[in-house]
C-alpha cells in the first residue's frame, strides 16, 4: 500500500489524486526529506506548557536568582539563560505533579491535563525538560550539565518518595520528609544557585546551605497554607493535600504525635472531597495535636537560621525581603 506525502490532505483530496497502481510500494516516498519541524508543530507540542505559563505564579525562583546575583554578579545574558532554564523546569514539573496528584486546579484554573489530556501533558513536560537542557548546553560548560543532571535526579527522587508514601499509606519520619523536600523542592532552587556559582566571575562563598534552608521554608510554608489559607484554597481547592492523601509536614507531625489515633491517616486513605470531613481533620490537627503551632515554630526557627546566614554572607536586602514575604501569621 502506498501513502500520500501531503501532510494535511483530506480524503476528498486523495480521491482526486489517486496513487498510480503502476508505482512500486515505496516509489512515492521520499526517504531523504528535509527537516519539516515547524513553528505550528512546536506550538501544538507546547500547548499544555503554554497554557500553564499564561497563568503565572509569583515566580519566587526568579526573585531568588536576582537576589543571589547581588553577591554573584553573573553577566546578564548568562543569568537570563539560567532564569529561563529554571522557569522551564519548574513549569514542566508542575504539569507532571498535577497529573500524579490528580489535581483539579492550578493557579485558580483547571489543570493542563484536564484540557489537553494526560498523555499529551506528560509528553510536553518531558519535551520541555530537554528544551531546557538544550538551552543550557549553549553555555558550553560541562559542569553546568553535570549540575543539571544531578538536580533533575534529585527532583525525581524526591517526587518518587512522596508518591510512594501516599500510595502505600506510609507516614514518613520528619527526617525522611526533610530529605524529600531537599530533593524535590530544594532541587530547582539549588540548581539555580549552583549554576550561578559555577558561572560567576567572582564567587568566593558557598551559598548552597542557605538556599537549602530557603527551600525547606518554602515547602513547609506551602504545606501549612494548603491547610490554613483561604487564598490558597481558592487557587488549588479546599485543603487539597487531604484529598490527595499527601503526607505534608503538619499531617506527619499530627499522625506521629498520636500514633494510636488512626482517624487522620484513615481520612488520608479515603482521599475525601467532603468539606466537613476535611474541616474535622484540620480541627483535629489544630486542637488535638497542635500541629499548626508546631509548624509555625519550625518556620520561625528556619527563618532565623536563614537570616543569620544572609548576614554572615554580608547582608542582602532583597533576600531579606523574600524571607519577609514567606513569613506566615503567628495565629490562624
TrEMBL record:
It comes from the Eukaryota. Keywords: Magnesium, Metal-binding, Transferase. Residues 1-25 are annotated as: Disordered. InterPro entries: Isoprenoid_synthase_dom_sf, Polyprenyl_synt, Polyprenyl_synt_CS. Transmembrane segments: none annotated. This is Similar to Geranylgeranyl pyrophosphate synthase acc. no. P24322. One of its GO terms (biological process) is isoprenoid biosynthetic process. It holds the Pfam family polyprenyl_synt. It comes from Pyronema omphalodes (strain CBS 100304).
